[in-house]
Amino acid sequence: MIHLAYCCPHCDAPINTTIDAATERLDCPKCGHASLVPAGAVADDRVHRCVVCPSTDLYVRKNFSQRAGVTLVVIGMIVSSIFWYYRQIYLTYGSLFAMALLDVVLYFSLGNLLQCYRCQAQYRGMAELDDQQPFDLETHERHRQQAARLADAGRR
Per-domain residue ranges for the chain? Predict the structure, then answer.
């Protein structure tokens, strides 16, 4: 089973569900919107294309909240700055080293997930993600610009 987290394309409600190769449609529990899963999107416990939107652009990233990561960096910066203010050099560098060590431990202990560039759907629970590409800024920017043009065309 693959765990899928996405927002409903109709009402933007957050949805967490499981999918497999036999899944034919996704239903929103809030608004009742039903989306058909494209044929061949999931096979052999692997996602080959997004099941929420028509995109085939997916990337691998760490299964860790970016907001939590930035929060850890800010906490480390504040703690080391306080030690620096009180001229506690060893504690300053010790706190920075501790945050770096925490970062390394988190990096190696957390798994990866697959994410869609277009709709940000997240796929967890797949065994191998070696054939998937890492984040590509050019692809991200292409999808971001396309969404901006569609939103601009909708306002006219």
Answer: 2-63+111-155, 66-108
